[in-house]
Every structure is written in structure tokens, then in C-alpha cells.
Amino acid sequence: MEKFNNMAFQLITSEDIRQLTAERAGETKIGETIQSLSDFSVEAMNASSARFVTLGIKEDIGPRANLGRAGAHSAWEAFLPKFLNMQSNRFFNGSDCLIAGSIDLNGFANSNELGNLRAATSKIDQILTEILNTIHQAKKIPIVIGGGHNNSYSNIKAAAINHPKGKINCINIDPHADFRPLEGRHSGNGFSYAFEEGYLNKYAIVGLHEGYNSENMLNALDEKKVSFTTFEDIFIRENMAFISAVEKELRVVNDGQYGIEVDLDAVENIASSAQTPSGVSVTNARQFVHHSGSSSNACYLHLCEAAPSLSAHPDQVGKLLAYLVADFVKSRKNY
Q1: Is the entire prediction scored with pTM above 0.90?
Q2: Do 134 and 161 meet the contact criterion of CB atoms below 8 Å apart?
Q3: Can you list the domains of the chain with their CATH numbers?
Q4: Of 118, 145, 238, 299, which residue is the least packed, with the fewest Cβ within 10 Å?
């Protein structure tokens, strides 16, 4: 744990969990059964029977470096009490999860100048890759909450360097492909950097918005053989049902280990870095996580870009994140 102290890593203790959990007679909450760590190390995680490690990321440098809105730093604080106060029962036993804590990375940017933000995003890449690598080394499945979609890079890289082939696949539900040029790191090019550096093999996207991806971006996707189904094809022209689109893109990535990326920008009217009035429903997002998680090849879940601090009802954003985490854990029951 000591090596992360200067990076503002906050370990969650059993006492922290108890204070956030509203105990009630005759009920058992996730906060009463979830596991915590004595220190952040492979050895401490190996001592736990939990299969999943939940980690919070407090940063919005990546979105700001992509000319987006601040706010993604606030997702973890909104998520945590909602998650801990879900019921631990026959459907979801909290002891399956270990809650590691969170890391506050916004201090890496000392100005809003674009070059400074992009340099800070690169520093975040290095730190998160190291942290996530520790989780993978312990043979646990990371569930990463908060921050910008720039952190897809670290999620992919950490999983890839722990895979025999040195690369993994990825499925993403997102209005944007986040495959922008290699112009300095930000939330819009995590996948293109991961592809260029050899960590990302096959990439598939569900719900791409036709009006918010440039022709240059689409050409880059074609060149790299990225598979995608657009939002308009699913919901406007109704050429394909939503679940059929998810299954189509899963067939692309499910020949090997793959990460699951959920950009909350995709969900209609949810406060996020690039909030949309036209997107998938909350139920669609939950279906995506369930179907994507229902394979032994799914190696992490990343929920990003949610910005509850921009919402009049931040607790509702936190509750959605809690639902998505529970859906992922439950989808893995047979694996």
C-alpha cells in the first residue's frame, strides 16, 4: 500500500464500509458482507475469497483534455453508498466482491491548458496501469468505477500484459468510437492508443451515434477493421434489435479475453461528460452489461464518464452505477 500513498490512494476500511451502510433488522446489506483489504497488494488480495475487486477513479482530466466537461471525478462517491446498501441475498452475495478503495488523480493537472491536461492524462495512464496490474496479478476481476474514458487504455493494457498473447479484445457501448488521432492522451483516444501499442486486438462498439463521429474517425475504424453497430440502425431505422446488436458485436470479441466498457454518455439523460438527450435506456445499459458479462472471457468491467456532480439527482446516477455492477457480478455466476 505504501507505494501508492503519494498518489492519493484511499484504502477503504471495514469501518468506512460500516459507516456508509444503513443496517436494518431482518436484512443483510452488501456493506455487511463485502470484503475489504488490509493493504493494497497481491498477497492481501490472494488471501481473499472474493472474485471481484472494485476500484474507484476520481478524475476528469481526460475528458477536459478532450474539450469535454468536468464532473467524472464524482462518480465513485455517488456509487459507493448506493452499492453498499443493496441487499445481499440469493441473487447477489456481497462476499463475492472485495472493495479496494479509490484514487484521486485530479491533482496531476495544475492548469487547464490543453497540453498540461494531456501530459497529466499520460501520467494517469502509468499509475492506473500499475494499480490494475496488481489486481490482475492476483487473478481477480477488476470493476472500475468513475473517471473519463481515457482510462480504457489502462484497463486494456493491464489486462493485456497479464494475458499470454499480450493483447485482449474489447466491447464498448458508446456514442463515440474514442478512436481519435494519436495527438496526446485524452478521453477520445484511449482505444486508438491501445491499438497502436499492440494491447488491443479486436474492438467492437454498440450504439455508435452517426452524427457524432467524423468521416476521418469512421475511415480509421474501417482501416483497423473495428466492428460497430450504430444507434440509428438499432433504434431509428430498426434494422436490428438491441440485443441482436449486442450479440453481433460479442461474436467479434468472444474468441478470446475481452474487456467491457460502458460509457455513461450512451445512456439517455444521465449526467455525464457528454450527456445525450437521445441514447439507450437504463434497461438497455443493464442488458448490455449482463449479456457482455455472461462469458468466461470477460476480464473486466469499466464504468466511466458518469458525472453525478452535474445532476440535480446525483444519487440516481450512483444507483445506476450500483445496478450495473450488480448485473455484471450476477452475470458471472456460472463462470
Answers
A1: yes
A2: no
A3: 2-331 (3.40.800.10)
A4: 238
